[in-house]
Write a structure and sequence with these properties.
The complex is a heterodimer of chains A (321) and B (282). With 321 residues, chain A is mostly helical. Chain A contains 15 helices and 2 strands. In chain A, α9 packs antiparallel against α12, α12 runs antiparallel to α15 and α14 packs antiparallel against α15. The radius of gyration of chain A is 27 Å and the shape is globular. The N terminus of chain A is likely disordered. The N terminus of chain B is likely disordered. The longest helix of chain B is centred in the last third of the chain and has 35 residues. In chain B, α5 packs parallel to α8. Chain B is globular. The two termini of chain B are 16 Å apart. The chains are: A mainly alpha (321), B mainly alpha (282).
């Protein structure tokens, strides 16, 4: 409504006039009509060049054999890059690792964040301190975080094995164990993003009217039931948002597995035990120099996202019924 | 940062259990950073022994200086300051202009264009890196900082963030009055939009700065350790054995993280507010 008023005002009123005044006003109208496009132009020019074009061109590139060292000399191979992926054990390994590490990282992260947000959603002394401290891992880069965690998880000298040794457990080979290494890589993601997600949940919790809690308490609902029936429904949009963002992040996981072991490089461990799709894309494109294959892997990642979102929708539809 | 912060007496006071658990969470959040500093003050020989060190040693100046020069962290910090600063300024500027147009102007392509921006929030930019790399290579920009600055200026989040803020902060009546006075679009933007957008611009600037500082995948592809590395590229080089000295690697990680921790300490309130506000509208 208000918008309509603005639009009408912004398009200048043109009275019946003549000569220079009319020309000037026509010019003014023209300017005002193109003004919105002038305002959005800087964003969309960059967007077209560096956002949209590369995405669309990925499909095209994936149909060629392209060497990183000689991109001009490319050769049409049709669906070959995709056919090759289907029979490539390392691709399937990377796909499985991406899904497993994604689940290991996302589920505990969001549950923990929910708990932390609940703790923060109280009258607290030093409230700002706790909130800022929760963002310290978010301000730490993937590289810096992974380099420290790689030391924590060292087999012989690492702090984690030292600590579990104190309680009498045997040391774990965090770099080489197929499950241990996935858990270790996932833990870096959990560490970096739990506080950030907690603040998002906290923001959503604070929009829930307090009267709802009082009414539920009057009806005899205990803490857990109030959380389940008042807090959780109020968090739905925030849950959807964080679920979306963490899923996109999980599918693209790259820095953590790249730097988790200094010797492994892009292979994701001696046995590829934590090589993700993002890392495999890098290995194919920038280590083995096959850009066409890398582009095909990028499309597989997009497909994976589509499948995950589709499954979520399906599950939500089921749940609603 | 919303209604209930303003009226705290209406909700529960945190008990000692709450403080205990929050203290634990804070400790876990901060410990790896503290220990990075401890490790950066030791020798690699000591870091290879168990139990790990928990107290500061004497090698911090030496390790920092090796990381700074041989590890390339000095140059990397300067490069990253340029990159993150340019990205922050550019993102804020372009997002504000586009956000204003989407918030308060009507034009034919508004709906489709807005949808296009929204769709890009669902598609990871990583999926476009292969053609992006070929494009940047053809432009001769590999190892050049503009290769990482320009793609980062495309922030769908920024456009939505500014649009959302301006819908609240810029009353239509104000624009109406300005138009009545004969103000053109340029003057409206300069005298009304920018002042109204300022608080959100500051927050978006900080969030973009942090994101650009920590951006990893694309810089690792487009820049090299010996070219024009950003902090993340230099740390990747260190982590992969460019300087085979663990304590120096930790010193590099410390140098690369410290600037953002300072930003967080200085502007914590605004950054917390930005993360929380950015999320509510999801």
């Amino acid at each position: 409504m208000a918008e309509e008023v603005v639009e009408r005002v912004l398009a200048p009123v043109v009275p019946a006039g003549r000569g220079r005044r009319e020309r000037r006003e026509r010019l003014g109208r023209l300017r005002s009509r193109s003004a919105p496009y002038v305002l959005v132009a800087p964003f969309f020019v960059l967007f077209a060049a560096f956002g949209l074009f590369p995405l669309v061109a990925t499909a095209w590139t994936s149909l060629f054999r392209v060497e990183l060292t000689a991109p001009e000399a490319r050769e049409w191979v049709g669906a070959h890059n995709y056919a090759r992926l289907l029979t490539d054990e390392f691709f399937w390994n990377a796909l499985a690792n991406t899904v497993l590490i994604g689940v290991l990282a996302t589920v505990p992260q969001l549950l923990l964040a929910l708990g932390v947000a609940h703790l923060l959603d109280a009258r607290l002394r030093g409230r700002l301190f706790f909130r800022v401290a929760a963002l310290a891992p978010y301000a730490t880069s993937v590289a810096a975080a992974t380099l420290v965690f790689a030391l924590f998880y060292g087999r012989d000298q690492g702090m984690v094995n030292w600590a579990i040794g104190l309680v009498g457990l045997d040391p774990v080979d965090w770099q080489n164990g197929p499950w241990a290494s996935k858990f270790a890589v996932a833990s870096i993601v959990i560490w970096r993003w739990t506080g950030y997600n907690a603040l998002i949940y906290l923001a959503a919790m604070q929009t829930i009217p307090h009267e709802l809690y009082e009414a539920a308490a009057l009806d005899g609902a205990g803490r857990w039931r109030r959380f389940r029936h008042v807090t959780l429904p109020g968090l739905r949009p925030a849950l959807a948002f964080t679920g979306l963002v963490s899923t996109i992040g999980a599918v693209q996981l790259f820095g953590e597995p790249l730097l988790f072991s200094s010797g492994a490089g892009a292979s994701g461990g001696a046995d590829h035990q934590y090589q993700t799709l993002g890392l495999y894309l890098y290995e194919q494109g920038w280590v083995n120099l096959h850009l066409g294959r890398a582009a095909a892997i990028a499309w597989a990642m997009l497909l994976l996202l589509v499948v995950v979102f589709g499954l979520v929708r399906l599950a939500r539809g089921r749940g609603a019924r | 940062m919303s209604g209930r912060d303003a009226a705290p007496e209406s909700y529960e006071r945190g008990g000692w259990g709450t403080y205990l658990l929050l203290a634990l969470f804070t400790a876990v959040s901060v410990f790896p950073l503290l220990w990075t500093a401890v490790a950066a003050s030791r020798t690699s020989g000591r870091l290879a022994q168990s139990p790990p060190p928990f107290r500061f040693g004497r090698n911090l100046p030496r390790n920092l200086s090796v990381a700074w020069s041989e590890g390339g962290m000095g140059e990397a910090l300067a490069n990253t300051a340029v990159v993150a600063g340019s990205v922050a300024v550019g993102t804020v500027l372009f997002s504000t202009l586009a956000g204003f147009a989407f918030a308060r102007l009507r034009f034919r392509l508004r709906g489709p264009l807005l949808l296009l921006v929204g769709a890009t929030m669902l598609v990871p930019p990583q999926l476009g890196v292969v053609p992006l790399y070929l494009l940047v290579a053809r432009l001769g920009w590999t190892d050049q900082l503009q290769a990482v600055v320009l793609p980062s200026l495309v922030s769908a989040f920024g456009v939505f963030y500014m649009r959302q803020h301006l819908r609240g902060a810029l009353p239509p009546e104000l624009l109406e009055a300005a138009r009545m006075d004969g103000a053109g679009t340029g003057r409206v933007v300069w005298h009304l939009v920018l002042p109204a957008a300022r608080p959100a611009m500051a927050v978006l600037g900080m969030l973009s700065f942090v994101a650009a500082w920590n951006d990893f995948f694309w810089p690792v592809l487009a820049l090299t350790q010996t070219g024009n590395p950003t902090v993340q590229v230099a740390l990747t080089g260190l982590g992969r054995g460019y300087v085979p000295d663990t304590s120096v690697v930790m010193a590099g990680a410390l140098l690369g993280t410290l600037p953002l921790l300072v930003v967080l300490a200085l502007f914590g309130r605004q950054i917390v507010g930005g993360v929380m506000r950015g999320a509510v509208k999801g």
